[in-house]
Amino acid sequence: MHPTDLTPFSPPGTDEYAAACAAFQLAAPVDPAGAFTARSVGDVVRAVATARRAGLPLRVHTTGHGMGRAAPVAGALLLRPLIDAPVRVDPVARTARIPAGKRWSDVLPAAVAHGLTAAHGSSATVGAVGYLLNGGISFYGRRFGVAANLVRSITLVTAAGEVVVASAAAHPDLFWALRGGGGGFGVVVEVEVALVPMHRVVTGMAVWDAAGAATAGPAWQRWAETAPREVTTSLRLLNVPPLPTVPPALAGRRILVLDGAVAAETPADVERAEKVTAEMLAALPEPEFSTWAPAGPETLPLTHMDPAEPIPFRSDTLLLRSLPEAGWAALLDAAGRSELLSVELRQLGGAFAEPAPDGGAFQRVGAPLLYWACGLPGERTEADLAAVRAALAPYATGFTAPTFADHFGQPQRTYDEAARARVERVRRDVDPGGLFAGDVAAIRDR
Question: Where does the FAD-binding PCMH-type domain start and stop, copy by copy (predicted)?
């Protein structure tokens, strides 16, 4: 088919093509046959019709943080839905309607203005809709569970070009599968999500030299096993680059960082949140310094120091059982010999572990720990990631959390065989011709 027959998709070499292909993950090739930025639901319907008529696969992305998670886009048409509509918060119902393409930085100001927040991720630049559809592991998660369980309805354009609203009351099987099923159901143009009350958070970071990890790591795990639900934390070994934007006390060092949040949903909860924070820090060796303090919930996406600008990276992830002494020794040995930028263990448990009565395909995380590590693309990073994975292999559950998987070739099992069979039945029903098949996450064990 001649490229002019692919309207509204723009061909390579055009500004429109480049804008539609822009992705946060710079290490993943983005080279479709044509690309289009949809600004309305009508645009999406038109794009789906074009792809169906041309007989070409249709791939969908917004911010491109997870661009490497699914198969390469070469030979497909790429659709970027950036719907020109505001985030609409209903403070009485405590919900937000989020159009496709909005980032958490668009959602949080609208929610916080009403004393509410969302179970958002650790970065404000991540697309809210993609995060929610892929489960969502939040620093509020031990209190409220997997973020996808808070989704109330999903509006999408199917392969047939129909605009469908899926919820617990309408198209319930599709609604179930969309929440963590791994993609390939259509083009989601809006998500309605429940918000939660949040007056303040106690958040910040405590910092040690990496040499203290052998003591601080196991102490953190012991504390985490019985920690109250309102706290969710992350422990990371960081190789801090010597950049002008990095504080001199940290630049060029390897450090251990504990960050996260303690939720204070009402003014009366602030004192307890501060007490929980003090008890947490008292359970660990004395840090070099700590910035943990009460703050507005709008500041939480800054806590984890995720990069705001697109970068190339390679990463790996596992869900883990608790680490024994030998496990900590193996992890710290492999991480200590690596050049990885970050080696992270995130605290799970609490509401993360509990199935939701009306939850989706990915609705709980049974493991107590989530591992994630990253580095700059290259042979050394691949070898370092393999070494850390080998050290942690005896404690791996065989499952992953979908928003943390970064590479199509990685293991990405996120649910059991019964859920997998149900997801695939729904996918066949809604997209029998496989128009969106390239967007399906690779569900494999190894």
Answer: 28-198
Residue pair 278/286 in contact (Cβ under 8 Å)? The answer is no
What pLDDT is attached to residue 242? Answer: 87
Gap between the Cα atoms of 345 and 427, Å rounded:
33
What tens digit of pLDDT does each residue of 284-306 get? 999 999 999 999 999 999 999 89
- Both 263 and 358 in a single domain? yes
Q: How far apart are CA 190 and CA 146, in angstroms?
A: 19
Half-sphere exposure of residue 272, counting CA atoms within 13 Å on the CB side? 12
Asked if residue 112 is part of any domain, the answer here is yes
Shared domain check, 366 and 399: yes
Q: Is residue 210 situated within a structural domain?
A: yes
The CATH number of the domain where 281 resides is what? 3.40.462.20
Burial class (CB in 10 A: 0-12, 13-18, 19+), 290: middle
Q: 131 to each of 118, 182, 375, how far by Cα in Å?
A: 12, 12, 22
The set of residues, in sequence order, having a beta carbon less than 8 Å from that of 251 and lying 6+ positions away, is 240, 241, 242, 243
Please state the pTM of the whole predicted model: 0.95
Nearest-angstrom CA–CA distance, 32 and 21: 8
**Number of domains making up the chain:** 3
| One domain for residues 231 and 379 | yes
- At 4 the pLDDT is 52
Residue 418 within a domain: no
CA dist., res. 100 & res. 388, Å (int): 36
Question: What pLDDT sits at residue 1?
Answer: 42
How do residues 145-202 score in pLDDT, each as one tens digit? 999 999 999 999 999 999 999 999 999 999 999 999 999 999 999 999 999 999 999 9
Q: Would you place residue 445 in the very low, low, confident or very high pLDDT band (cuts 50, 70, 90)? A: low
Name the region of 266 (left: φ>0; alpha: ψ -120 to 50; beta: rest).
Answer: beta
436: in domain: no
Nearest C-alpha neighbor of 423 from the set 360, 355, 363, 357:
360
Same domain, 122 and 234: no
For 422, counting Cβ atoms within 10 Å of its Cβ (0-12 exposed, 13-18 middle, 19+ buried), the class is middle
Question: Residue 32's domain is classified under what CATH number?
Answer: 3.30.43.10
- Nearest in space to 263 (alpha carbons), one of 301, 219, 300, 315: 300
Q: Are 340 and 373 in contact (CB under 8 A)?
A: yes
Q: Measure the CA–CA gap between 38 and 45, rounded to whole angstroms.
A: 9
- For residues 63 and 23, is the Cβ–Cβ distance under 8 A? yes
Q: What is the pLDDT of residue 2?
A: 45
> Across all residues in the chain, what is the average pLDDT?
95
